[in-house]
Amino acid sequence: MDQNPNTGLATRKTAAQRQAARRQKLRVQENQRRLNVWIDASACNALRRMARRDAVTQSQCLERLLHQAEDRIIAALELDSPEWEAYFRFDHTASRSPYNPRPKESQTR
Length: 109
What we know:
109 residues, mainly alpha, 4% strand, elongated
């Protein structure tokens, strides 16, 4: 609970305030990011089954699968090659893959 600056009495946070604080803590202290996606029902069920089988959360299961898949991709890339550079180039504003870039302006004229 927080204190009311005017009265000095404890005030309760709303559910939205508690959730916002939790998300901020995850983002900052635990370096977590929220992923909000729609996936095929069969993929969702597979994720649930795999997480239950391994006694982990769905988040932990998905993280493990992503890391395993990326490890296979990286193992296939030649160190410091153009493909390596393209794979690790990250532009959070880009909506396209580095393997399918937007045409350069000189190519569109």
